[in-house]
Design brief:
Layout (H helix, E strand, L loop, with lengths): L21 H6 L1 H7 L10 E3 L5 E2 L1 H19 L6 E5 L6 H10 L3 E5 L5 H11 L3 E4 L4 H11 L6 E3 L13 E2 H8 L19 E7 L7 E6 H14 L19 E4 L6 H13 L3 E4 L5 H11 L3 E4 L1 H9 L15 E4 L6 H10 L4 E7 L6 E4 L14 E2 L4 E5 L12 E6 L6 E2 L3 H7 E2 L3 E10 L5 E6 L4 E3 L2 E3 L1 H9 L4 E11 L3 E10 L1 H9 L4 H14 L14
Parallel strand pairs: 1-11, 3-4, 3-5, 5-6, 6-7, 10-11, 10-12, 12-13, 13-14
Antiparallel strand pairs: 1-2, 8-9, 9-19, 14-15, 15-16, 17-18, 18-21, 20-21, 21-22, 23-24, 25-26
Helix pairs in contact: 3-4, 3-7, 5-6, 8-9, 11-12
């Protein structure tokens, strides 16, 4: 069959500028006035959750330029240099990112819960020249930097009021911004026509369909494209819709609990929200009861969440204390993993007046491919939504032929937001990024005649645990590093809260088995000791939020 295209109701793909960097598109007045909805007054773009500090567009513009001045002058960051952000959400996270982009550099976001060996792997894979960290992550950062031969003075730290860096000599990002504000502005990187499609902005990590995490090469054009695709799909500039019925409105307030190192949080919860004129409350680390307090305090209108957070909204006992207090919420979007029909039904009952639905995307498609229709207040329960403008798909059946409606097969995606490749990994690139700009997702799907996409299964070995990718091979490698384990196999098992959790089958080494026979404790207690040592051991401390069963 022919490629499956978006329904006419999904909107028309607008012109996507291919000669702009992300900060030019987001911050520069001439482009703000040209493309984005008209703002309501001078409302802030970012709000710090803990302090209530508000950051306006002019302040973001000034801080970005000042930090760019300092990064260029003091650290010689320039064309093609990689700056790795190893931090929880912070109001200066986008400032550090956009400042790097102003200089022609590339940003690689990293999970702040990584241990030193995981961070060292990402530093090595990206050849990062500078590391910007949250104070809580300093020790892991310094250990990884030392292992990579990155000098300590190349590690910078965000300022956090209640957390002092364990190494006071590290340079503070805010102090750099103050210095940079007194410097002459360095020239920013100007792109030639068409260059935005190849000029890299991000190296975001994903396990893809198999194996260790890989650096996904994302150009400036991709982030801008997905922002404009979402804008068109959501009819941001359509004045014919009644104000109270619009899904995204300037002056609304979104909560930024999704981590900014994750592509969902970075593109949808940050860049798209700011483009739509919606303030983002920056939350460093998710805490459910803290999120409820923030919804009330800031009158949050938009929640971007993953299924475990939806479970908490539906089932956490603290919700009983917030009856009638969450009425400001008018949009809830879930992504990163499917939501069950039961949870959808419960969400609909909890927020009867809100727009609620799901979307689908991945790092390799940067980001959203489908979203629930704008003319439907409630998405079809269990569906990932319809294709957004500019996205087209193919259904690849097991026999290699292309499927039609209601036929099941692997989802292939072609979109202007697609990433380019896996950086430095030609073999993985060949397997996932196909000729003609198509991306193999590793997800088994079917497309209904009404245009709704349904995720059927995953063909890839990767598990989705709380919205994060987990490679069984990585966990198996960690287990096999333990001296008491001779063989291991990890599979995913369903879990209501996490979606999936890893289940490990472990074969003990001969020595461990012999010790077990001689142990005075029961076999189950001895095995529990081994399990605990694997979980707590350095080799197996990788996915700190994952759950082992043996």
């Amino acid at each position: 069959m022919a490629d499956i295209l978006p329904r006419p109701s999904a909107g028309v793909l607008p012109h996507i500028p291919d000669d702009l960097t992300i900060p030019q598109f987001q911050l520069d007045p001439q482009f703000i006035d040209q493309w984005r909805p008209k703002p309501l007054g001078d409302g802030p773009w970012l709000i710090d959750d803990a302090s209530g500090r508000k950051v306006s567009v002019p302040q973001l513009r000034e801080r970005t330029q000042a930090l760019a001045n300092a990064l260029s002058t003091h650290y010689s960051i320039g064309e093609g240099d990689v700056v790795l952000l190893f931090s929880r959400n912070h109001v200066d996270y986008p400032v550090a990112m956009w400042a790097t982009h102003r200089l022609g550099g590339i940003v690689s976001p990293a999970n702040p819960d990584f241990n030193a060996s995981e961070l060292e792997y990402q530093l090595s894979a990206t050849n990062a020249k500078l590391l910007i960290v949250h104070p809580e992550a300093v020790q892991a950062a310094l250990t990884a930097a030392k292992a990579r031969g990155l000098a300590q003075d190349r590690v910078l730290v965000f300022d956090v009021d209640h957390v002092k860096p364990p190494v006071p000599s590290l340079v503070n990002v805010n102090s750099l911004i103050q210095k940079g504000s007194r410097m002459r502005n360095v020239p920013e990187r100007i792109l030639k026509p068409g260059e935005g499609k190849t000029k890299l902005a991000l190296l975001s990590f994903s396990s893809g369909t198999t194996g260790r995490p890989k650096a996904v090469a994302i150009p400036h054009y991709a982030v801008i494209a997905n922002t404009l695709q979402l804008s068109s799909h959501s009819r941001l500039l359509d004045d014919s819709t009644k104000w109270e019925d619009r899904r995204f409105r300037p002056g609304d307030v979104s909560i930024g609990v999704l981590p900014l190192y994750h592509i969902y949080g970075l593109v949808v919860n940050l860049h798209f929200m700011l483009y739509a004129g919606i303030s983002v409350v920056i939350v460093p680390k998710f805490n459910f009861e803290g999120m409820l307090k923030s919804i009330v305090r800031y009158k949050i209108t938009h929640l971007f969440i993953v299924p475990p957070q939806a479970v908490l909204l539906c089932k956490h006992p603290a919700m009983a204390s917030y009856t009638g207090k969450l009425n400001s919420v008018r949009v809830i979007m879930t992504g990163a993993a499917p939501l069950t029909d039961e949870l959808n039904t419960m969400l609909f009952a909890l927020f009867p007046d809100a727009h609620i639905g799901q979307g689908y995307g991945m790092t390799e498609t940067c980001t959203v491919v489908t979203m629930w229709p704008i003319d439907m207040k409630r998405g079809v329960s269990g569906s990932a939504g319809e294709l957004i403008p500019g996205a087209r798909i193919r259904i690849l059946k097991p026999d290699g032929s292309l499927g039609t409606y209601n036929e099941v097969g692997e989802l292939l995606v072609q979109a202007p937001s697609n990433a380019l490749a896996y950086h430095g990994n030609a073999q993985a690139t060949k397997e996932t990024f196909l000729d003609g700009g198509w991306v193999r997702t590793g997800d088994e799907v079917r497309m209904a005649p009404d245009g709704m996409l349904w995720i059927v299964d995953r063909l890839k070995e990767i598990m989705k645990v709380r919205g994060f990718q987990v490679a069984p091979s990585e966990l198996e490698g960690s287990l096999l590093d333990h001296p008491d384990v001779s063989d291991a196999c990890v599979v995913g098992v369903p879990d209501e809260f996490s979606g999936e959790v890893p289940l490990a089958f472990v074969v003990l080494s001969a020595d461990a088995a012999a010790r077990l026979k001689k142990a005075s404790a029961s076999a189950s207690a001895a095995l529990e000791d081994i399990r605990a040592s694997i979980i707590k051991g350095k080799q197996a401390s990788k996915p700190r939020w994952s759950k082992y069963r043996s």
